[in-house]
Amino acid sequence: MSASQNALRQKGLSEPTPETSRYDYVRDGGAIYARSFAMIRAEADLARWSGAAERVVVRMIHACGMTDLPGDVEMAEGFAEAGVAALKAGAPVLCDVHMVADGVTRARLPANNSVICTLRDPRVPDLARQLDTTRSAAAMELWREHLPGSVVAVGNAPTALFRLLELLDAGVAPPAAVVGIPVGFVGAAESKEALARDGRVPFVVVHGRRGGSAMAAAAVNALASEIE
Ligand SMILES: C/C1=C2N=C(/C=C3N=C(/C(C)=C4\N[C@@](C)([C@@H]5N=C1[C@](C)(CCC(=O)O)[C@H]5CC(=O)O)[C@@](C)(CC(=O)O)[C@@H]4CCC(=O)O)[C@@](C)(CC(=O)O)[C@@H]\3CCC(=O)O)C(C)(C)[C@@H]/2CCC(=O)O
Q1: CB of 211 sitting under 6 A from ligand 1
Q2: pLDDT at residue 215 in the model
Q3: Catalytic site residues?
Q4: Which residues does 47 contact at the CB level (< 8 Å), separation at least 6?
């Protein structure tokens, strides 16, 4: 008997096991993933992508549960290859919000890459006031030295994606690849449209209102490792 089972028994409780539980569900994490990916591949139209690009789309669907997502996905030629190569070369991952940064699985990163989110830097509130913008966009002022050759992941803030394009306009060297999937109603669709039409940097976007931090982290995780 394990220590935890013993402790429960002393309190007059018993630990539920697959045999005693009244719920029948899959308990094996690997089996859950394998079954999910098989369902996604059966239901989603992935014909436009292969290799790492297809893995990115599969993982984004996995993070949101919507197998019709491919209809809104636009990916620049060479995006996945550029993202994979940058991560293998040790590029940092720059995230608009901590929810994205926290979702990046460190063990999948191929070169012990740093994952950077500057949103909680104490300088950001003042910067936002000075620049008359959101904290998400102002936080990117602190990205300047990290930006060239990086992998950018924007999952929440449309203003961050617009600000990225403004930094490129200001002459900052571009990132290697951009996951640009802010979610929401104000500026989300417009910022993603602007990135897709910009042409200066390899990108993946989900056009329209859909997107989000979980999806952005999942896209980075797909670029980070060949395994599912
Ligand atoms: C306008 C904003 C939007 N936020 C959305 C959705 C979610 N945001 C969450 C949280 C906890 C955070 N959002 C902030 C980034 C905050 N959100 C904004 C801003 C006001 C402006 C961004 C923009 O328009 O570009 C932004 C604050 C800012 O000044 O930049 C956050 C920093 C607010 C805060 O807590 O201080 C915070 C980020 C936390 C982190 O670092 O991880 C939600 C969890 C809110 C919730 O439901 O409680 C949710 C998460 C969605 C996701 O998948 O990421 C929208 C809908 C994206 C919206 C932008 C578009 C719109 O239509 O309004």
Answers
A1: no
A2: 98
A3: 62
A4: none
Across the chain, where does the E strand assignment appear?
A: 73-75, 93-95, 115-116, 151-154, 177-180, 203-206
Nearest to 141 by CA among 152, 156, 131, 151: 131
Q: Which atom of ligand 1 is nearest to the CA of 100?
A: 42
| ipTM for the complex shown | 0.93
Rounded Cα–Cα distance for residues 194 and 111 (Å)? 31
Q: Which atom of ligand 1 is nearest to the CA of 160?
A: 25
Cα 157 to middle of ligand 1, angstroms: 6
CA 166/CA 85 separation, integer angstroms = 25
- Counting Cα atoms < 13 Å in the Cβ hemisphere of 134 gives 16
Residues 6+ apart with CB under 8 A from 49: 56, 57, 75, 80
With the C-alpha atoms ordered 205, 217, 153, 110, is the resulting torsion angle positive or negative? negative
pLDDT of res. 36: 96
- Identify the residue whose C-alpha is closest to ligand 1 atom 38: 97
- Closest C-alpha residue for ligand 1 atom 8: 156
pLDDT at 12: 73
Distance 122 CA to ligand 1 centre (A): 18
